[in-house]
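Lecture 7 notes: from sequence to structure.

We start with a single chain of 236 residues. Read the sequence below before looking at the structure.
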Amino acid sequence: MLSPHAGLQSMTYTFHPCPSAMPPGPLRALVFVHTALREELALLAEEAANLAVDNEGSLEDLRARFDWATEALHFHAKGEDAAVFPAIEERFPGAAMSFDDDHRTDDEIVAMMGERLEAWDDEGAAVEFAHLAGTLADRASLHMDKEERLLVPFIEEGFTPEEQGAMLGGMMAEFPPEFMLRGVPWIFSHLDEELRIRYATALKNAMPPEPFAMHMGNVEAELGAEAWAPVAAAIA
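Now the structure, written as tokens:
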């Protein structure tokens, strides 16, 4: 039986091109975490509005959703800041500035949301939090759309597949091992069957066998036997 932390502390990710899973380049794998982030931030905005306007739900649940959604957004942005944008700027000065600016603005919104959450019972704080949650969800979704439509094709034209794989591996290295234990199953929970199979295939090509098996065990527990079966068949 694998330790729950098997191989995590020393794990590195080397993303190799996998044309059958993610045509035409490694950075197309961004769609997996983008899909999960879009849905998680939309759920946060929905729960915030329900609690602020209709008093439906609990502040404890909203706080837990806020903490997780913004943590996932933070590490995703940190990975891009560390491994993607510097590589672009070095080769094409100025090309990544607007994407980096989006991250700074999102950080400011998250900070304001945290303040409103702590002052939830103060007049106007709950409604302001709900408004900011909707703004963050909309902004982040537009940012990720822009990356998928514009930035990834630009990178695919200007960088080799090996360089793209190094970018993606550098991004993954910014996610702490403890986050990945929950984060990988979380991403799978937001994907449809086709994307789950593509994501599992990408991870199989990127991870050493032992941590891959450990993560897939966590995914199976998250999805349940029926939803897991087609993924298991695809990576067997």
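The longest helix spans residues 125-158. Keep this in mind for problem set 3.
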